[in-house]
Specification:
Blueprint (H helix, E strand, L loop, with lengths): L12 E4 L6 E5 L4 H18 L4 H17 L1 H12 L3 H21 L7 E2 L6 E9 L2 E5 L7 H12 L3 E5 L6 H15 L9 E3 L4 H9 L3 E7 L2 H13 L3 E5 L4 E5 L5 H13 L9 E7 L3 H13 L19 H16 L3 E4 L17 E4 L15 E7 L2 H9 L3 E2 L1 E5 L3 H8 L8 E4 L15 E2 L16 E9 L16
The protein binds nicotinamide-adenine-dinucleotide.
The site of nicotinamide-adenine-dinucleotide has 30 residues, from helix 7 and helix 8.
Length: 491
Amino acid sequence: MGLDVSFSRSGGLPVHTPVDGSVIGAMNPETAASTDAAIERAVAAFTQWRAVPSPRRGELIRRFGNLCRDHKEELSCLVTLDCGKTLDEARGEVQEVIDICDFAVGLSRQLHGLSIATERPNHRMAETWHPLGVFAQISAFNFPVAVWSWGTMIALTCGNAAIWKPSEKSLLSASACAGLLARACEDFAEAPAHLHQILTGGGDVGAQLAADPRVSLISATGSTRMGRSVASTVAARLGRSILELGGNNAAIVTPSANRELVLRGVTFSAAGTSGQRCTSLRRLIVHESVHDELVGQLKRAFSQLRVGNPLEPGVHAGPLIDLPAMEMFNAALDQARAEGGTVHGGQRVLAEDYPDAAYVAPALVEMPSQTPIVHTETFGPILYVMRYRTIEEAIAMNNAVLQGLSSAIFTDNMREAELFTSSLGSDCGIANVNIGTSGAEIGGAFGGEKETGGGRASGSDTWKAYMRRATNTINYSTDLPLAQGVRFDAA
Ligand code: NAD
């Protein structure tokens, strides 16, 4: 059976592929009434799904993961059409969905609580974990399916019903994934109708989900601007959110660094996915003794990268998501020049072949210091390079921005590596040694601090955010001792 891409019916708003700018479908956005009805259906689905034992819930996730395995190549093509990343990277993204499914299946047998020492005789105290309610996922264009799977596979395993509001810019792969999940539910007796629903639309649909008290947990991935709006809306109703927002990620290159690792790690992190990963490398902080030589090597490495149609083999980087993204890219380079930067690369390419698409050469920008533009996340392949003298200065530069997602140090010096990963080191949610800032594995908790939002979407023990914790104190005596020795003998 092939993939169902049901959103692409006629009418509605056009959806473009970044590959050549052509129209690949149409979106009929939800109305306020249809979004409201979907939330109501999800509440009903939750009341049934929460009663299903979690290992059985995991079985549903296993089925979905296997369907993704069967359709990996088709899904990968849709991811490339949706967001313009190379086919190889798209395959990596679909593999991430499959990996998260495996992780969730294992988790379905390990949703365990603690037993805790109690001060009262013949009492028992324990923590139990229960399904939370309706989970809503808002996702960004640049990881059109992986980000959804991080949250939704965990949420479903934990006994929640789920709603997905994918980016309005990347609907093909989202629609196909939702179709595969629906197929997994089809002959799965315990799966209630509307256990998972996909809602198409823009920020207004996401904002409605954020505002609705029937949504117990909302996970929002995207820009800091969007996160600020979701956070304040959810906070006003004292709800729960997981925020996965923008990054401004740095790597420090020390004198002892293995140059081969630096060149490969930096080039992939900065130019891969055309700089459109939340973890893309945007700032390179290089020791003054190796700065000039490294800049020369990186200029050569950048100029050898093949920017082109991401469906073709051998291409390193595809287009930016759309022409407005290219305008922002150009504006950032202009601002960098005005702030004293020297720009290498960064020109538009393939304009004749693809006039409606936004192909650009990655830009390496030598900066005198971390000026205002260096503090800004521009979603494209721009790498700002600065010098440092002491390791303390380099760490301070790493931490000087408002975002706190990913960071790295390249060094063979154990003291520098340990300092960087210590409490005095990087203040980011991800701190790597001798690898780049992007390309995280699913086993670790993923997310960042400060304006990145503080959320952790998946991996490690993040499942706890998707459940409700209850503390149970059970008295199996015939006495009623009060905690802290309090006496109340009225009866
Ligand atoms: P975006 O903020 O424009 O849109 C993201 C999603 O939010 C879309 O589905 C959009 O419709 C929705 N949205 C927009 N306004 C909203 C509102 N007021 N209320 C509710 N929903 C709203 O982001 P984008 O351009 O799609 O993605 C790029 C951004 O995402 C970058 O900043 C990148 O760093 C970030 N990102 C972060 C992570 C992470 O894990 N930290 C992962 C991927 C992308």
